[in-house]
Amino acid sequence: MCGFIGKISNNPIDEDSIRKSNSFLTCRGPDQTEESGNCLGSKNFNFENKFIFQIFNRLSIVDLSEKASQPMFSKEFNTSILFNGEIFNSSELRRELESLNLQFKTDHSDTEVALLGLSHFGLNYVNKLKGQFSIVFFNYKDNKVYLIRDRLGQKPLFYFIEKNSLLFSSNLKSLVSNLESREYENSSIYEFLSIGVVTSPRTIFKDVSKVEPAQIIEVNIGEQISISSKKIYWDIFSFDDDKIFDPNIFNSHLSKAISRRLVSDVPIATLISGGIDSTLILKKLVESESEINSFSVTHKGNKYDEKKWIDLVNEKYQTNQFYKEIDNRIENNEIIKSMELFDEPYADPSTYPSAIIYKTISSNYKVVITGDGGDELTNGYKRINQLMTRKKSLSILSYFFKIYPNFLGSGNKLLKNSKNIEIAYNSFFHDYKLLDLLKINSYTPKNLYVNKSKNDFKNLYLSEYVYYLSEFMHLKVDRTSMAASVEARSPFVDSDLVEYMLSLNSTHIEFKNPKKIFKDILIQDFSTEFLDRPKMGFVFNLENWVFKNSKFIINEITNGEISKIINLKNVKKLTLFKTRINALRLWKLLFLEIYFKSIKSL
Description:
CATH superfamily of the largest domain: Aminohydrolase, N-terminal nucleophile (Ntn) domain
CATH architecture of the largest domain: 4-Layer Sandwich
Strand order of the largest sheet: 3-4-5-6-10-11
Shape: globular
Helix content: 25-40%
Radius of gyration: 24 Å
């Protein structure tokens, strides 16, 4: 696990500027830094008349030796690599490469497996890599650089290209700190205000892009530096099929997914929420006779506390359990610090408890197994069940939506039963009414409904992977875990497991009984009271904090950077009705303000 920044240019590079931006990478691993003497900054490789400089910070998980440090070079192939992430099947891939008499310098580095595999077989080798990663691969012989991201977007990769240079980084702030001009993209700001995130390939900055999930971008390093091609190497839509669910095949895939993620040269912890997903992971770990050190967040005396269920799980499986309690009296500076961890604006308030739990884990562990992706895998989100069982409404509700007061809410209750499933699905994400309140009428909202299958359910299923998991959930998990120098590994996001589930029809799904396939495995250990309770989510009492601090929030945004870009004349209306949606709206605006301030200080 690592973080990196690099630049290729026809002109001399300001190394001091890039070294300063290294400070944003320290959150991505403290084991290999310039200060420790293990961070390589290099220039003038084998590109004629080209200047190259790279910085890399390492969080040592697999092969802790200095030989596994980066950038990593192959003299035999005249190639090099910067690699952020983990290849979970690197051992078997290494054996295959060794059988071809390829010479390894490291003992068991997964970075070297990726380097030699890509060097020997070419770009198609990326299809063999099972894991979470962002890669910058250099082929000096052909004057090519390749930007590569994992299948489901677990690891980020940003880039900026102009005629004479390519700037790339695993951290957006690190990259932007090296730009002479930092101009915001208004449509990206509006997208964030509507859905709470900026989706790939855009970022919040003009001319700065994000590599899309499962994408390879080829950059030609010639007289001018330019993109030669863009390719999607893993087409998620190609796995759509009509097979019948087989519990034995599912269990086999899940067991392999968990086993792969237990490969580590450092101890591993487990994140337990008390919910179905993390409980199933825990059960599988017990069956594999793994040592279990589990961590949980509890909420002191409020409606989101699930300690009762967490205790039940830990009592059943006899774990070494650690708790971190969140007090209702949250200091403003704690919230601000959790927002400042992010290199991209992101509005899901679960970022706060996520940041706390990963910081707690980091005291003793560098790797944690999580249940992220379980909802996508098994139709766990309430919105999918509501959409598939909705009573399709009359078109007159669209009229009521138009006249619905923008300070009351998003209008989702009016649109979620629409006959048009695209309108219904998008209403769970887009807050069109907030844009209306802020007098933003020049933005065309992005359609988050993927219409690539023959039936509504599979389209919803695919939409959750293409947008919600890749663009929302993975951003949160990566930034909050990496900020604490912890690698989060999610078995439910294993590509083999996901491909299998995508190949199925919906006969194993009960829309009024979500996660049935998980419950069928857990029923022998837990009561229906535990299994069938409403999903809580990894949240905190957002309404309580926001409306207790509404004066602070209003003051911050109306007197800050955001007021120079957005019309905040009506923002105080959001305090009239103390609902969760209005709390989320104020949270979004505050997050954006904190983000703008952090960019201004770069």
